[in-house]
């Protein structure tokens, strides 16, 4: 099963998103609460478009 993004409302009424793996495990979540669902969707699209970004090891 493929992974999926979920958009949900937090306790404060804001919108957040999380990425779940095919097995249902959460592998990433937004640290920011968005005021609108449309803004959360833009956050998802930003993550999707930048997913091919390089890895920088800061250790």
UniProtKB/TrEMBL annotation:
<feature type="domain" description="DUF1508">
    <location>
        <begin position="10"/>
        <end position="56"/>
    </location>
</feature>
<dbReference type="InterPro" id="IPR051141">
    <property type="entry name" value="UPF0339_domain"/>
</dbReference>
<dbReference type="Pfam" id="PF07411">
    <property type="entry name" value="DUF1508"/>
</dbReference>
<dbReference type="InterPro" id="IPR036913">
    <property type="entry name" value="YegP-like_sf"/>
</dbReference>
<dbReference type="InterPro" id="IPR010879">
    <property type="entry name" value="DUF1508"/>
</dbReference>
<protein>
    <submittedName>
        <fullName>DUF1508 domain-containing protein</fullName>
    </submittedName>
</protein>
């Amino acid at each position: 099963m493929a992974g999926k993004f979920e958009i949900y409302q937090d306790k404060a009424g804001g919108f957040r998103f999380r990425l779940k793996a095919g097995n249902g495990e959460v592998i990433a979540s937004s640290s920011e609460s968005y005021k609108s669902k449309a803004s959360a969707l833009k956050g998802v699209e930003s993550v999707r478009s930048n997913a091919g970004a390089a890895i920088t090891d800061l250790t």
